[in-house]
C-alpha cells in the first residue's frame, strides 16, 4: 500500500499565478494532487475522477460515522443497563447526554486545532483517545464509571465528523461541494438510525460490554485508515498561525455572518428533534409498545429509508438549482406538522401506527434538512472550514445533549413528550429561518 501523500497547493516558482491550480494523479491506490500549469481549476478536488472521489467518500464516510455509532450503538441495551445497574431510565439517558456533550465540546477544540496544524494529527490523536475510552467503558464496574468513559468517548469521536467536513471544504466549492457534502450528510443522518439496528443484532450474541469492544475495534480501524489512506488537505501555507487573535478572527468571521448563525442553530434544533426520538425510543417502543431488541432494530432500519430519501432528494434539488434555504423553508413546516400529528394521534389513542407513520415522515424531513445546513454554513467559510464545522457539530450535539433528555424527565409512558420536544424545536427553526437567515437574502450557490 502506498504511503500517504501530502497535498501541496504551491505551484512551482515559475508559475506563481497558478498557485491554486492542480492536476490529479495516483500514487499506488491513493489519490494525490500535484501542481500542473496546464490545468486551471478553482478547487483542487475539481479534477478528482469518480474512482478517486469514491476513496474520499468511503474513508471520510467512515470517519463521519464514528461519532453517531459511538452515541447510538448501545441504545437497544438501555433496558438491560437499567436492570443491571438498578437505576432509573433518566440516569441511563444521562450516559447518552454525556456522550453528546463530550462530542460537542470536542469539536470546538478539534476544529480550530485542525485549522492550525492540519487535518491528520487531530484525527489520529482524538481517535486514539476514543479507543482508550471504549475499552474503559467495556470494563466499567458501575454506571458512574460508564458515564465518565462515555463522556470521554464522545470527546474522542469528535474529530471524525468535523475534520471530514473540513477536508471536503478544503477540496471543493460550489455545486461539487453540495454533492460531496450530501454524501457526508447521508452518513451523518443515516448512521444514528442504523446504529441501533446493528446494536440490536450484536445483543443476540454478546452482552452490552461487547458493544463497546466493537466500538474499540472500529476506532482502531479508523486510526489505521487515517494513518495509511488520508492525505493532508490543508498545506502549511494555508494554516493559521499561533495567537488568540487568529482564533478570534475565525470565530468573528463566523458569528458576524447572519446566515451561518441562523442555519447552525436550525441544524442544532433539527438534530435535537431527531435525538428526542433516539433517546426515548428504546423505552417507548420496547417498554410501551412491547418490541423486543430485534423488532426495535427493524424499526430503525425502516426509518433509515426516510433519511436516505431525504438526503438524496435534497442534494439532487440543490444540484438542479433549488436554493437550500427554500428546501429548509419546506422541511421546517413538515417537521412541525409531523410533531403535531404525533401528539394529536397519541392523545386520540391511535396506538403504534399513530406514532410510527408521522415519525417516519419527521425523520425523512430531517434527511432533507441536513445537507442544506452544511452547504449554507460552509459555502462562504472555506478559510475557517474546520472552525465552522466544529461550531456546527458542537451546536448539533450540545443542544441535543441538553434538550433531548427533557423527554426522559417528562416520562416515556407515551409518545406525547417526544412529540412536544420535536414540535418545540421545529417552531424555533421556523422563527430562525424567517427572522435571522431571511431566505430571500441568501445568494445563489456558485457552480
Automatic annotation (TrEMBL):
Keywords attached to this entry: Cell membrane, Membrane, Transmembrane, Transmembrane helix, Transport
Gene3D superfamilies: Multidrug resistance protein D (1.20.1720.10)
Keyword Secreted attributed: no
The keyword Magnesium appears for this protein: no
InterPro entries, per the entry: Efflux_drug-R_Bcr/CmlA, MFS, MFS_dom, MFS_trans_sf, Sugar_transporter_CS
Domain Major facilitator superfamily (MFS) profile: residue ranges: 53-441
Any one Gene Ontology BP term: xenobiotic detoxification by transmembrane export across the plasma membrane
Molecular function GO labels: xenobiotic transmembrane transporter activity
Domain of life of the source: Bacteria
Protein localization: Cell membrane
Signal peptide feature range: none
GO cellular component: plasma membrane
Spans through the membrane: 54-75, 87-109, 121-139, 151-172, 184-205, 211-231, 259-278, 298-317, 326-353, 359-379, 391-412, 418-437
Topology of this chain in the membrane: Multi-pass membrane protein
Family the entry assigns: Belongs to the major facilitator superfamily. Bcr/CmlA family.
NCBIfam families, per database record: efflux_Bcr_CflA
Protein name: Bcr/CflA family efflux MFS transporter
Organism listed in the record: Orlajensenia leifsoniae
Amino acid at each position: 500500500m502506498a504511503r500517504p501523500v501530502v497535498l501541496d497547493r504551491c505551484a512551482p516558482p515559475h508559475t506563481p499565478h497558478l498557485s491554486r491550480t492542480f492536476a490529479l494523479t495516483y500514487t499506488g491506490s491513493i489519490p494525490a494532487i500535484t501542481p500542473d500549469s496546464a490545468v486551471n481549476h478553482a478547487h483542487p478536488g475539481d479534477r478528482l475522477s469518480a474512482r478517486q472521489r469514491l476513496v474520499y467518500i468511503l474513508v471520510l464516510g467512515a470517519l463521519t460515522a464514528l461519532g453517531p455509532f459511538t452515541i447510538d450503538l448501545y441504545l437497544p441495551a438501555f433496558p438491560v443497563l437499567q436492570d443491571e445497574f438498578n437505576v432509573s431510565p433518566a440516569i441511563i439517558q444521562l450516559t447518552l447526554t454525556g456522550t453528546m456533550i463530550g462530542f460537542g465540546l470536542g469539536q470546538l477544540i478539534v476544529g480550530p486545532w485542525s485549522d492550525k496544524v492540519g487535518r491528520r494529527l487531530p484525527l489520529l490523536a482524538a481517535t486514539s483517545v476514543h479507543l482508550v475510552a471504549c475499552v474503559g467503558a467495556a470494563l466499567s464496574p458501575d454506571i458512574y464509571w460508564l458515564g465518565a468513559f462515555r463522556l470521554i468517548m464522545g470527546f474522542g469521536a469528535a474529530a471524525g465528523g468535523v475534520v471530514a467536513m473540513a477536508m471536503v471544504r478544503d477540496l471543493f466549492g460550489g455545486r461539487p461541494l453540495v454533492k460531496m457534502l450530501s454524501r457526508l450528510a447521508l452518513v451523518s443522518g443515516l448512521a444514528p438510525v442504523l446504529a441501533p439496528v446493528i446494536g440490536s443484532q450484536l445483543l443476540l450474541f454478546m452482552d452490552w460490554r461487547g458493544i463497546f469492544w466493537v466500538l474499540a475495534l472500529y476506532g482502531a480501524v479508523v486510526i489505521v485508515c487515517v494513518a495509511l489512506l488520508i492525505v493532508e488537505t490543508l498545506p502549511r501555507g494555508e494554516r493559521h498561525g499561533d495567537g488568540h487573535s487568529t482564533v478570534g478572527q475565525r470565530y468573528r468571521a463566523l458569528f458576524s455572518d447572519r446566515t451561518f448563525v441562523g442555519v447552525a442553530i436550525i441544524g442544532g434544533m433539527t438534530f435535537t428533534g431527531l435525538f428526542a426520538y433516539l433517546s426515548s425510543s428504546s423505552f417507548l417502543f420496547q417498554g410501551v409498545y412491547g418490541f423486543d431488541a430485534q423488532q426495535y432494530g427493524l424499526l430503525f432500519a425502516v426509518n433509515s429509508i426516510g433519511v436516505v430519501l431525504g438526503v438524496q432528494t435534497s442534494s439532487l434539488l440543490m444540484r438542479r438549482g433549488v436554493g437550500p434555504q427554500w428546501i429548509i423553508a419546506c422541511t421546517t413546516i413538515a417537521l412541525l406538522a409531523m410533531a403535531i400529528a404525533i401528539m394529536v394521534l397519541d392523545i386520540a389513542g391511535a396506538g403504534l401506527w399513530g406514532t410510527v407513520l408521522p415519525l417516519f415522515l419527521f425523520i425523512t424531513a430531517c434527511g432533507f434538512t441536513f445537507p442544506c445546513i452544511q452547504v449554507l454554513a460552509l459555502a462562504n467559510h472555506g478559510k475557517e472550514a474546520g472552525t465552522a464545522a466544529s461550531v456546527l457539530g458542537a451546536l448539533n450535539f450540545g443542544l441535543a445533549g441538553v434538550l433531548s433528555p427533557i423527554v426522559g424527565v417528562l416520562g416515556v409512558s407515551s409518545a406525547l413528550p417526544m412529540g412536544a420536544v420535536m414540535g418545540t424545536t421545529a417552531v424555533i427553526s421556523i422563527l430562525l429561518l424567517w427572522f435571522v437567515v431571511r431566505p430571500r437574502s441568501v445568494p445563489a450557490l456558485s457552480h
